[in-house]
Amino acid sequence: MFEFNEKFRLSSRSSLAVFGPFEVAVKLDGQGQPEALTPRSTEQGQQGTVVHRFGNDADTVRAELRLSIADNGTLLASVSAETVNDNDFGKQRAFAAEHAIIVKIRPQERIEGLMANYQHKDWWTRPHFDTDPARLPERTQSVVWRTAGGFYHLLPVVGAVWRTDAAGTEDGFALRLSAYESGRRKCETLAFAISAGDEPYRLVQSNVDAALKALDYPTLPRESKTYPELLDRLGWCSWDAFYHKVDEAGLLAKAEELQKLGLPVGWVMIDDGWSEVKDGKLVAFEADPVKFPGGLKRTVSALKERYGIRHVGVWHTIAGYWGGIHEDSTIARDSRDSLYQVPRGNLVPYPDAGRGFGFWHAWHGFLRRQGIDFVKVDSQSAVLNYLKERRSIGEAAAAAHEALEASVALHFNDTIINCMGMASENVWHRPKSAVSRNSDDFVPQEKRGFPEHALQNGYNSYYHGAFYWGDWDMYWSSNHDDKQNAVLRSVSGGPIYISDAPGNTNPANVWPLIYSDGTIIRCDGTANPTPDCLLTDPDKQPVPLKLWNTAGGAGVVAAFHIHPEAAPVDGFISPDDVPGLEGEEFAVYEHFTQSCSFMKAGQREAIRLDESGYALFAVVPVAGGVTPIGLADKYLSPASVADCFAEGDSTVVTLREGGRFVFASKGHPMRAIVNGEAAAVKQINDYVYEIDGGSSDRPARIEIVMA
Predict the structure, then answer these.
(1) Is the model's pLDDT at 202 over the cut of 80?
(2) What span, in angstroms and rounded, lies between the C-alpha atoms of 152 and 583?
(3) H or E element, residue 703
(4) Between 20 and 30 A from 163 (CA), which of 406, 616, 621, 681?
(5) What angle do CA 190, 194, 198 make, to 5 degrees?
(6) For 65-102, b where at least 16 C-beta lie within 10 A, e where not — what string?
(7) CATH topology of 224-513 equal to that of 528-706?
(8) Are 582 and 621 spatial neighbours (Cβ–Cβ below 8 Å)?
(9) 545 vs 613: CA distance, rounded Å
(10) Can you give the pLDDT at residue 10?
(11) What is the CATH number of domain 528-706?
């Protein structure tokens, strides 16, 4: 892997070798078009920093672009700018609220392919694929590209005040800085980070780590966060089951059904529709008295005590409800010091962390007393829509998230699912919450909803996974795309929960995702597109979408046909699909066919998927005559292997729970012993053998003796 300080040794001229001459333009309040600034000087600063200075002919605007190398080799670019005014009492020159400062960079090496994640809606991002940087969409939040020399990753940053976006320009990228608040005469911010190297999956993490360290935020990268223990259990959400018609009777009926099915759901999320609202605004902390005549506490108690649901959560928005807090409510009167009226009249939590906390503390304290254990917080990217021109975007987002998360930490042990919050100001300003929605909504009625859902989740995870474990949304266990959705979530690394209506849950499509106690079988990290897919659009090219992760010391690769045409798509499976997986030889096992091949690193085999088809591969390093795959009826089979060791001709495997155990071998197993008793060995396929590992209510110890 090369780094910037190795590739061209940062100096007054070296950055030009990679990006060409930098250009800076500014846009002032009342100005129609940006004004290009003239380069004034470039000089070497302390500790290798390079400073490029710019100004206009009238000397009314000055700007500096400072480049430095972080300890991990990331290039950090900071912008300082100011307007020059004759006095403080006259009309002032100030930066425009949007796109006030524009930095243009031009990659000098030809781009062979790029993948950008851009904000296509206020709430969500999706991927864009190209070879021409000029076509980069508005509001791009991450760009990875490949040249003959390797990979680059560009990460626009949101600082304490300013947000940076990327967009295409004539022959490069335009980095555009916005405070979303007029009247500012100075800018001092970290604007973007760039990493370069041979391993694209390391670059985004390098950028996030270096930028957060430079910003000195309370925000943590995902690797420094703790995944909420509560979300390690299977969940059920009311949204797609009831939508806004959720009520106590429906929730209890569904809980009774799940209990009768023997499906060990660990948590229930009561989604939108439970609150008492008027005119689209929150009226009370308590639930709607018509839908929940005994109050929220009675419903929660019944779910837990009668039906064995361990944890119950509720939904709300970052403004309380979609339209905020009703001005004629008791909340407005009792929490008036913690609320803020925006120009359109809506009341929202005050955009100061200390004052806004008062509202959340009051509501969350009430919810905790009703037995609520966690929250899902929606509409988070509405912070900009509510507070534009009232606060800078950095200040508004920081205040909103710090107040919210302080209350969640106090009342719910940091357990929160962030939602509708993929705008970069939200991504960068949550102090420590660990889970955030990774895509637009799952919509069960859409016949071709899965391809876009899989595309967004797979590619958004490339940058979003450096900050959060992605919530890939609820799904239906009985639907036209049920198995694809289950397989997709199995490799996500995040929470898994269903949203079936009463009478529609299919346990057979859920059990492959969980152990017998309802613990989800979760990957080690967050999923990513495989190296051959990272810069390729499987919606436009007739190739499978392949996503990789790791579990139980093995790689896992899920492959999907998401192309709009019905013709089969062709691709390859290889140990190289899982970067960093150690070993010289691998057993590559496909879950649904139970077929297996032995491959060396660098080898590959062709795969073909029919329309709406899918496949799931375990890539297990070979370390002896027996290669344990794991439980045959679990999607992440290798995760079920708790331990494995070999002594002579004998291999001993410990499973987390009993069940159908499969292993791969080129030899001939002679006999097996399960929990001290002889067991049959059945050959399933070439190289694939199966042993009955006993009941799932306890771990299994399996000894395999080779001939």
Answers:
(1) yes
(2) 27
(3) strand 700-706
(4) 406
(5) 160
(6) bbbbbbeebbbbbbbbbbbeeeeeeeeebbbbbbbbbb
(7) no
(8) yes
(9) 11
(10) 44
(11) 2.60.40.1180
Tens of pLDDT along 516-541? 999 999 999 999 999 999 999 999 99
Question: Given pLDDT bands bounded at 50, 70 and 90, which one contains residue 12?
Answer: very low
Exposed/middle/buried for residue 148 (C-beta within 10 Å: 0-12, 13-18, 19+) = exposed
Residue-level pLDDT at 21: 80
* DSSP-derived secondary structure for 530-555: -TTTTT--TTTSSS-EEEEEEETTEE
Amino acid at position 251, single letter: L
Residue 357 host element (H or E): helix 353-369
Domain borders along the chain are 4-216, 224-513, 528-706
User: What is 224-513's CATH number, 3.40.640.10, 3.20.20.70, 3.90.1200.10, 3.40.50.970?
Assistant: 3.20.20.70
Residue 143 burial by Cβ neighbours in a 10 Å radius (0-12, 13-18, 19+): buried
Q: Are β-strands 267-270 and 311-317 bridged in parallel, bridged antiparallel, or unpaired?
A: parallel
Higher pLDDT, 88 or 556: 556
535 Rama sector, left if φ>0, alpha if ψ -120 to 50, beta otherwise: alpha
CATH topology of domain 4-216: Beta-galactosidase; Chain A, domain 5 (2.70.98)
